[in-house]
Amino acid sequence: MSATRFDAEARQGLTMVSPPLLYAVLMLAAPLLTILAYSFFRDGYLEIVREFTLENYRMVLADPVFHKVMLRSVVVAVLVTLATVLLAFPVAYFLSFMVRPERKAMWIFLITIPFWTSYLIRVFLWKVLLAENGVVNSVLMQLHIISDPIGNMLFNVQAMVITLAHAYAPFAILPIYVALEKIDRSLLEAGRDLGESRLMTFWRVTLPLAMPGVVAATLIVFIPTIGDYVTPELIGGGKVPLIANMVQANMLAIDNKPMGSALAVTAMLIVAVISLVFVFLNRNFLKVRT
Amino acid sequence: MKGHGLRVYAIAYLLFLYAPILLLPLFAFNSGTIIAFPLKGFTTDWFSQMVADATLRRAFTNSMIIAVSSAVLATSLGIFAARASTRYNFPFKGGIMGLIMVPLVLPEIIVAMSLLVVLLAIGVELSIFTVILGHTLLCMPYAIAILSTAFNSLDQSLEEAAYDLGETKWSAFRLVILPLVMPGIISALLMSFTISLDEFIIAFFLAGNEPTLPTYIFSQLRFPKSVPVIMALGTVLVAVSILLLTCAEYFRRRGVARTGRTDSGGFV
């Protein structure tokens, strides 16, 4: 292939991709860079003073409230991710190995539907379920399992974990399912032929080969969960804020945009570091095997 | 057998996923004002109250305008990106596509806050237009994911045959490629529409004083009295979403069948 033909193709490709690229640059990259810039500015009385300072970051890092909220966000996100991925794996396994090929698309469709339907209402329904005069209490009392309603099911970390795990459940299944689908079935037969039990074949062949999907599922649940705004607001009742609520409060209610920006950037960095460490720990599983 | 236990688990898991959604219609038609068992009696009052609510009607109109505009914009932009990424090699392809797809994983609050800061700084007044800007950004990656599958399954020799028969680039696209990817385009439109209709965070922060259906729901949740009406609204929204998604799935499958590939199921 000649260099000119490649140039022509590159030019055509770049022209073709330029409208969505321009949109993403204007609406996403530019705003993110603005946040980054703001985080180094000083907050004046009514305006932002454009002089470079590291003061925002110093305050964020020294702030005990930030430590507490960030730690709580990480704990909630880790618990949600753990619950989601562990519960999702058997379903993905079932889909890939037990369901007849022509039925697979139907199952995937059924699993993804709840994910697309009214996130807000699903979160709110958990509030209704767990409320003091709510569904769980009324059912338990009717069955005479309890005589007085359980009062402290809402407004705490456990309730948030349940709600978020339910909301993100479908998202964890898909990447694991994709990884399982890619496994060459003859490898499993080879494992069995070489005298491994079903369980050992799973442990030594299936699971390691499925790990790229598990890692993808972990990240795809962990990252959005840690930035969730609605669940702490509704289920936590504003009493147990997560990092998203703290960023939002600084940006709007407290109206200290440089501080809000520094909080957002710090949180994103922490999430990025955790994600990278996690990927690094799993590096042996992620090497391409052919 | 081992497979049987897993099947039971998978069905139990599906039930867990659907449990809250299945409760919605129960309470939407329940005459009791408190959302708890036992159910009182059958009523359609909450639905008539819903239809009579002026703010809700306004929220509905706003949501429709936003969802239709975002779906059309996101799908149009998505066609360019999907076509470019499946047909051409160009420099920085990974980075460029990565940037376009990143709203898939970025927490929405970050997207919303950064857009808000910029819009406030350049003095744009918040309205449903600013929500459309945000929703288009958010829906675009989903549209691209669907459209890429559609463009990927195209047989390039069909396009070349059109050129050989004297068609120009544009007429070949219009007459050969477009009809083949049309099911993918419809699927992307429906999916984007559903996502926009359901989206709360961006609508909450970028809409100014204009209500959308999710922000209206959020504002009403504080008042226990209006919860049954929200249940009715939720029932309608979920029913509409499922209907739209089913249509999207139908068109996606038809697209797969049209190009003669085996179905691997949606986003995989």
TrEMBL record, chain A:
Domain of life: Bacteria
Transmembrane helix in keyword set: yes
Keywords: Cell membrane, Membrane, Transmembrane, Transmembrane helix, Transport
Topological type in the membrane: Multi-pass membrane protein
Location relative to the cell: Cell membrane
Residues spanning the signal sequence: none
Transmembrane segments: 21-41, 69-95, 107-125, 157-180, 201-223, 261-281
Record-level GO cellular component terms: plasma membrane
Family according to the record: Belongs to the binding-protein-dependent transport system permease family. CysTW subfamily.
Annotated protein name in UniProt: Spermidine/putrescine transport system permease protein
Organism: Paracoccus isoporae
UniProtKB/TrEMBL annotation, chain B:
GO biological process: transmembrane transport
Location(s) in or outside the cell: Cell membrane
Similarity comment: family membership: Belongs to the binding-protein-dependent transport system permease family. CysTW subfamily.
Domain ABC transmembrane type-1 intervals: 60-248
Keyword Membrane part of the UniProt annotation: yes
GO cellular component: plasma membrane
Family annotation (InterPro entries): Bact_Polyamine_Transport, MetI-like, MetI-like_sf
SUPFAM superfamilies linked: MetI-like (SSF161098)
Record PANTHER family: PUTRESCINE TRANSPORT SYSTEM PERMEASE PROTEIN POTI
Protein name, UniProt field: Spermidine/putrescine transport system permease protein
Keywords, ordered alphabetically: Cell membrane, Membrane, Transmembrane, Transmembrane helix, Transport
Membrane-spanning ranges: 12-39, 59-82, 94-122, 128-154, 175-207, 227-251
Organism of derivation: Paracoccus isoporae
Membrane-topology descriptor: Multi-pass membrane protein
One of the Pfam families matching this protein, by short name: BPD_transp_1
